[in-house]
Every structure is written in C-alpha cells, then in structure tokens.
Amino acid sequence: MFRIPVEVHLRDSLFTDDAIIERLAEVQTIWEPARICFEFHLDDQGPDDAGTVPVLGDSGLLHGGSFSNADVWMVQIIPRFPLANGLYDGYLGAYVRDNPVLNPAPHPATFPASRTMAHELGHLLGLKHYLGQPDTTDSLMSSKNLGYALHDFEIATARRVADVLALDDRSPTSCGQPRRGQVNRIVRALPAWFPTVETLPE
User: Fold this and answer.
1) What is the value of pTM for the model shown?
2) Which of 71, 82, 87 is nearest to 38 (CA)?
3) Does residue 100 contact residue 86 with C-beta atoms inside 8 Å?
C-alpha cells in the first residue's frame, strides 16, 4: 500500500468535521483499487494565512523538482476560476469546492466533493483527463462527471508515481483516520521522468 500525506486546509470550507471525514473516507474508497491511500491531516488555515501555510512554490511539487506533501484547499469559490469545481496546480496543490456541480454517471460517487478531490489527487499522481470515450462519464479522470472508475493503465501510472511520493514505511496495509494538525514536511527529490501536469481546472 502506498500512503501519501495530504494536508487538507479547511478555513474556507463550511463542512463540519463529520462531513469532511465522511467525504475523505469516500476518497479512500475510490483509490482503493489502486492500492493507494492518503494520510489526511486536517488544518484550519487557509491559502491567505501568510507564515502558517505554504505559499506558491513551497508545497506540493516544488520548482526545484522535489516534493514534500500534497495540499488540498477546500473552498466555496476557486480563486481565478469561479466556475470550476476543482483545480490542480503542480506547485500549489489542489483546490476543491465544497459543493461541486457534476453531471450524473451510471455508477456515481456519493459525494461530489469526494469525487472532485479524488480526481484532483489523480492529477497529482500523473493522470490526465480522460475524454471522448464511451465510458467517459463513469471515469474518475473525466471532467465534471460523478463517475469514479479507474482504468488499468491509470492505476499503473498512479502506482509508479505513488512509489516516489509515498511514505517510506510500506508495511501498513491502510491509512489511518484523518487527524488534526499540519504534515511534517520532508522534502524529497523527484526523478527526471516524473510527470508534470499543467494547471487544470475541472
């Protein structure tokens, strides 16, 4: 099991603790087929709290080709992209709206925010949008849909990337419950082949 640390910033979210924990549990379920899980750390800071949270270029994928952890900012409206449901930025991390507006799917996720967060974490793991195929609406990496399926080729890519980003201790078979507090940031170098994903709104 690859366990990746993710700091979830909640200052601008209206979710109760119970609601966010319920949605994070669904994120884990979505990624379970890939044997990838996320060690979620809940933080009440927001993206504008200078000195207490990472700034552009100091979290996620750094300009110097290194990684400490992923950051997810739960918000009502995404800065610069007010109509987007989620946004992945290779340097800052991911923005996820509390209440994304997603199209129906044959096999939908329960919570739109869970599906959107799982989708944005897919970009962290090197996955691109999956569009124009017969099963697009059921795919996690399609845009603006409630589907959450992962294809075998996506799982292979995600696991290769997760092998670089995951915590060194691979003995646990699952991730723990979300916990309060910031992640202990340990920066690690990224290999030359590591995929880069542009800023992508969904």
Assistant:
1) 0.89
2) 71
3) yes
| Tokens encoding 77 | 């409206």
CB neighbours (10 Å) of residue 15?
A: 16
Asked if 71 and 7 touch (Cβ cutoff 8 Å), the reply is yes
Mean pLDDT over 66-76 rounds to 82
Q: Per residue, what are the HEC states of the chain?
A: CEEEEEEEECCCCCCCHHHHHHHHHHHHHHHHHHCEEEEEEEECCCCCCCCCCCCCCCCCECCCCEECCEEEEEECCCCCCCCCCEEEECCCEEEEECCCCCECCCCECCCHHHHHHHHHHHHHCCCCCCCCCCCHHHECCCCCECECECCHHHHHHHHHHHHHHCCCCCCCCCCCCCEECCCCCCCEECCCCCCCCCCEEC
Distances (CA, A) of 78 to 52, 86, 95, 163: 20, 7, 6, 30
> Dmax of the chain from CA atoms?
47
Gap between the Cα atoms of 134 and 29, Å rounded: 24
pLDDT tops 90 at residue 37: yes
Give the Cα separation of 140 and 32 in Å (integer): 13
For 45, the token pair is 């800071």
6-34 pLDDT, tens digit each? 999 998 999 999 999 999 999 999 999 99
